[in-house]
Amino acid sequence: MNSQVRLLVSVGEPAGIGPDICLALAEHPLPFPPVLVGSMDCLRRRAVNLGLPVVLEAWEPASPWPLTPKGHLAVLDIPLAEPCRTGKLDPRNSASVLRSLDYATALLQAGLADALVTAPVHKGIINEAGFPFSGHTEYLAERCGTERVVMLLAGRGLRVALATTHLPLSAVPAAITPESLECTLRLLEYGLRRDFAIDDPRILVAGLNPHAGEGGHLGREDVDIILPVVERLRREGLRLSGPWPADTLFTPHMLEDADAVLAMYHDQGLPVLKYHAFGEAVNITLGLPLVRTSVDHGTALDLAGTGRVAPYSLLHAVRAAAEIVRNRQRS
Description:
CATH topology of the largest domain: Isopropylmalate Dehydrogenase
Oligomer: single chain
Number of domains: 2
């Protein structure tokens, strides 16, 4: 087992709070010093703006992995097309944002790094720049050639995974098929075993419709799709239960012995998770050949450069990435 876990942190949207929270890493104790992947110029300007005495050191992949002390951060420079204006989106810089993800992914695939932690990007401005982009999860899956991944958010003892991710609500029912649901549940169960070292994970499955369909009177998906998949996998030995009505699933009694909940769509599960642990939760992509974690929040353009940003979700994401790498090395 390697003694050093080599962590990359992509800076994300340069106009947002990504640079702020990445710079804050220099002042917090971390298990392993990370390398930031983003614009050195943007980071330097933001550090001056925030009055942070952070020493930024250029790093290239051909060099040994940096062991930077507190107050220092190593940076793999990905220049921007245009100087960053704090809080002001510029579509001309979207290509650089994606280039940082591509570069980091290539380093992981080449075995030159162990994990990627992503600061938030702005989906809208990336699409405005002409790049189809629905989120980090889908983008990294495509870059890795992975057909199916699972988005999992975890914080304060609660883990919520999603059967569908960034889809319009009208498209969700058609996306929940027996094949996709079975694949998601298998990936979630395997991810809990491998990445979280849970020997026999128990997963609660939410229904799609109110009251889990009320026996088919409020929609047939729960009866015709979700229940048969859950029962079939239970017979194979997976510890699943459901479909449960989502309005009573997220109660202390139900969650007491659960290791994770599978929600059917984004805004069914994540509002509960974020109410429970916002600012401390971690977004984890299961099913990738590489380790990727992220923050639980967006770019917060109105807070960029103000000094009022808490970096705790990023700190938790860095620590979670290191722990997942360790768990994979042990498995």
